[in-house]
């Protein structure tokens, strides 16, 4: 069956966009190939690893399982949205200061899932953090440093750094 083309309108990283897309275009491919934002990573391409996590209206979403057409009219945030005038966000600083990244491939997904958590729950417990990051996999390391990074980010957020 022929694929339909539609106009997608959304707010991406604070800016309004209109793009002609095919109905079956994945959000991950829209971000990386149509828009050219490659911070969002392709890992498993099947909903298993969380590397492709972005925020849709502040909720973490796996972009490899989401059609771009489904974010019509939504607010979409990728990892590229977090740095403001060269200043790292609280979550980015937390991962940097607590050594929450090794190879870094999974890190954009962890960072966006963590940013979504802090927007919903600025003072998460360890269990809250584990639950929020339960869909994200890191193949390099254990998760202790990552949990420390999110706790550090929560402290920075409480001190006024944007999440
Ligand atoms: S690439 Fe989307 S969950 Fe792995
Ligand atoms: S830091 Fe390498 S996969 Fe997580």
Q: What's the helix and strand layout?
A:
Blueprint: E1 5-12, E2 15-22, H1 27-35, E3 53-56, E4 59-62, E5 75-77, H2 90-97, H3 107-120, H4 126-132, H5 144-158
Parallel strand pairs: 1-5
Antiparallel strand pairs: 1-2, 3-4, 3-5
Helix pairs in contact: 2-3, 2-5
Q: Could you explain the architecture of this structure?
A:
Strands 2-1-5-3-4 form a five-stranded mixed sheet, with helices on both faces. Strand 3 (53-56) and strand 4 (59-62) form a beta hairpin. The protein is built from five helices and five strands. The chain has helices at 27-35, 90-97, 107-120, 126-132, 144-158, and strands at 5-12, 15-22, 53-56, 59-62, 75-77. Helices cover 33% and strands 17% of the residues. The longest helix has 15 residues, at 144-158. It is an alpha+beta fold. The structure holds FE2/S2 (inorganic) cluster (FES) (2 copies). One FE2/S2 (inorganic) cluster (FES) is lined by residues 42-45, 47-52, 62, 64. One FE2/S2 (inorganic) cluster binds at residues 42-45, 47-52, 62, 64.
Q: What radius of gyration results from the CA coordinates?
A: 16 Å
Percent of residues in β-strands: 15-25%
The strands making up the biggest β-sheet line up spatially as 2-1-5-3-4
Structural class by helix and strand composition? alpha+beta
Can you give the helix content as a percent range? 25-40%
């Amino acid at each position: 069956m022929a694929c339909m083309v539609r106009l997608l309108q959304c707010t991406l990283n604070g800016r309004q966009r209109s793009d002609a897309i095919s109905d079956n275009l994945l959000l991950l491919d829209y971000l990386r190939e149509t828009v050219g934002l490659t911070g969002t990573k392709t890992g498993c391409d099947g909903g298993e690893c969380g590397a492709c996590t972005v925020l849709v209206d502040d909720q973490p979403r796996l972009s490899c399982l989401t059609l771009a057409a489904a974010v019509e009219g939504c607010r979409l945030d990728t990892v590229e949205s977090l740095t403001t005038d060269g200043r790292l966000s609280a979550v980015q600083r937390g991962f940097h200061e607590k050594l929450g990244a090794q190879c870094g491939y999974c890190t954009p997904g962890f960072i966006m899932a963590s940013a979504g958590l802090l927007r919903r729950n600025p003072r998460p417990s360890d269990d809250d953090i584990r639950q929020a990051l339960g869909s994200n996999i890191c193949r390099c390391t254990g998760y202790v440093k990552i949990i420390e990074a999110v706790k550090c980010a929560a402290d920075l957020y409480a001190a006024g750094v944007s999440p």
